[in-house]
Amino acid sequence: MYQEENNPMDGLKVAGVIVGFIALVVIALMCVIPPYKVWSATKKGEAEYMRAEQNRRIKVEEAKANLEAEKLNAQAEIERAKGAAEAIKIENGSITTTYIQYLWVRQQNANSNNKIIYIPTEAGLPILEAGQRESGQ
Q: Is the pTM for the entire model greater than 0.85?
């Protein structure tokens, strides 16, 4: 059988190949890493810009929605005022005590969680202390 001799030069060749490979990898990384950092920073900046742009759009849409709500609230208030003016006009411009009592009773009915019982008196005014006694005041 043929037996190979260990040549010291073979070990040096292998070490040279390994060192050469490592040097090649280091040089490749030195060429690749700086452009990657620039690309990565650019992408990060673009993402931040897109987030800021989206947040601005959201704020604009919220402001538009608030403006629309305020316009609708103003229109509703105008319609309520027109209704009240029409009611006064129907009464020939005078508000009677009977109408004021009616409004008070209607307002009490709107607050259904109150347990107030309306008892007319000789003066036509409600007894307000009845509700206080029940609540312990």
A: no
